[in-house]
Amino acid sequence: RLFLQSLWDFVTARQSLIKSPFFPVLLSFTAYMAFCLPYIALDILSTRLPDLRKYKIQPQNYPSLGMMVPCIIQSVHHHVVLIFPVTFLHWYWRPMNLPVIAPELPEVLLEVVVCLLLFDFEYFLWHLLHHKVPWLYKTFHKVHHKHVSTFALTTQYSSVWELLSLGFFAAINPVLLRCHPLTEMIFFLVNIWLSVEDHSGYDLPWSTHRLVPFGLYGGAPHHDLHHLKFKSNYAPYFTHWDKLFGTFTES
C-alpha cells in the first residue's frame, strides 16, 4: 500500500488537472502516442538493421510515412471531435470522486485482470459479429482492416462506431466493478498498451504473450494473423474464447 499511496498522493496533488474535462482525452492521446513511439522507431531502424528485422512478424512489409500520417491525423480528429465531447458529457454527469486512501496492490492487480478479461470477452463477441454479418463488416469494421500488415498506429485506425464501442467497453467495466480511480487509470493505460502491442507487428523477446504461460495470451502474433487471414483469432488478447468457439489459428 505504501508505494500505491505515494503514487495516489502524487495524483491527487493535481486534482485541478485530474478533475478537468480535458484530462481523459489528454491522457488517452498522450498515452497512445507514447506507446506507439517505440514501435515507430523500430519500423524506422529495423529496415536498416537486420538484427532488429528478425522480430518483425511480416518482414516483407514496412509502413511508409504516407501510411503513418493518415493514421495520426485520424487519431487526432477522433480525439478532438469525438472522444472529447463524450468525455465532457461523462465529466458533467459523473464528476470524479478522488478518495484519500489508495487501494491495496492485490486489489488493483485482481481488478485490472478482471477488467481485461471482461473487455476481451466483450470485444470478442463484437468482433465476431462484425465479421460474420457482411453489412456490419462493410459499414463499420472494414476500415480497420485496410492494412493487412499492422503497425502500431493502425491500433486506433477505425470507424467512429468501432471507436465508440471499444471505448464504452473499456469505460464501463471499472464502473461495474466499482474500481478505485487509480485502478481505473491503470487499467486504462494497460489496455491502451496491450492494444498497441497487438498491432505493433513485432514479436519481441519481452512481448506479453511470452510472459503469460500455457499459450493463454495470444499477443501480437495472434492478432497479426487475424489481419492477415480475416477469419480467425477474433479475441484481442486471450486465446480461450477463440479455442472454445473453434476460431483459433496457431500463429
Secondary-structure topology with pairs:
Blueprint: H1 2-12, H2 15-18, H3 23-45, H4 50-53, H5 65-93, H6 105-132, H7 134-141, H8 160-176, H9 181-199, H10 208-211, H11 219-229, H12 240-245
Helix pairs in contact: 3-5, 3-9, 6-7, 6-8, 6-9, 8-9, 9-11
Describe this structure as you would to a colleague:
The protein has 251 residues and is an all-alpha fold. The protein is 65% helix and 0% strand. It contains twelve helices and no strands. The longest helix is centred in the N-terminal third of the chain and has 29 residues, at 65-93.
Helix content: 55-70%
Structural class based on helices, strands and sheet pairing: mainly alpha
The biggest beta sheet reads:
none
Strand residues, percent: under 5%
Number of E strands: 0
Globular, elongated, flat, extended or rod-shaped: what is the shape?
Answer: globular
Q: N-to-C SSE series?
A: HHHHHHHHHHHH
* Number of helical regions: 12
Indicate the mean pLDDT: 93
